[in-house]
Amino acid sequence: MAGAHSVRVAVAQMTSINDLATNFATCSRLVKEAASAGTKLLCFPENFSYVGDKDADNIKIAEPLDGPIMQGYCSLARESSMWLSLGGFQEKGSDDAHLCNTHVLLDDAGNIRSTYRKIHLSYKESSFTKAGKDIVEIDSPVGRLDPTVCYDLRFPELYQQLRFQHEAQVLLVPSAFSKVTSQAHWEILLRARAIETQCFVIAAAAQAGKHNDKTESYGDLLIIDPWGTVVGRLPDRLSTGIAIADIDFSLIDSVRAKMPIAKHRKPIDFWKSASL
């Protein structure tokens, strides 16, 4: 059980398809499972509500945040009295040809508390997705949360800013990583981000398996502590389910006290003036 200075969280692994109702039913079941385990936050993967067979399908179903799709998930959060991390929602863009890949944080009353629009876009994604511009952080019962999405993981400077300018404690990284890149880089990058920032990475939530004939995700959800140790993982990387771990705030403090990189870190101006 979680101790006095820790909070229980859960992370979901699932295989979303091109059916909003089916995906919602899966998420509902996982919310109930997490709630029965006493968790305060459940983190879903990128594209949790829908994965289209074609890019145009994702644009077609995209909705504003006050639309019925997101409002259904707001109801789930409210009914379960649990915070939800919904990373990679197809939010309707400013024109009919684009959407925003939006990470939405809901509180335990079902209110939208934060929205982060994915900043780093792959070449393919940039053709139909509008990139975000703003870093987001929010205080919660699970500490200071800083949402990112999938491809952001490859850009460590984002996580450096979240840690050293925004005092992050918990980094959220919902994803739908491809099979080839995940086999080579997934766990390594996640553990590196945890070690570099001395934060928990709790939302390495993963799409898993084949969504359709053309799209396959790697799965393998991970929860990683500030020392880089994997503290949450499912027995396999393809099944639908949740992993549970406790966010131990005393561990965050201990790691940062024993290795005070925030004090030792050189400012950007130092490197600009340094001679080679």
TrEMBL record:
<keyword id="KW-0378">Hydrolase</keyword>
<dbReference type="InterPro" id="IPR003010">
    <property type="entry name" value="C-N_Hydrolase"/>
</dbReference>
<dbReference type="GO" id="GO:0016811">
    <property type="term" value="F:hydrolase activity, acting on carbon-nitrogen (but not peptide) bonds, in linear amides"/>
</dbReference>
<dbReference type="InterPro" id="IPR036526">
    <property type="entry name" value="C-N_Hydrolase_sf"/>
</dbReference>
<protein>
    <recommendedName>
        <fullName>CN hydrolase domain-containing protein</fullName>
    </recommendedName>
</protein>
<dbReference type="Pfam" id="PF00795">
    <property type="entry name" value="CN_hydrolase"/>
</dbReference>
<feature type="domain" description="CN hydrolase">
    <location>
        <begin position="7"/>
        <end position="249"/>
    </location>
</feature>
<dbReference type="InterPro" id="IPR045254">
    <property type="entry name" value="Nit1/2_C-N_Hydrolase"/>
</dbReference>
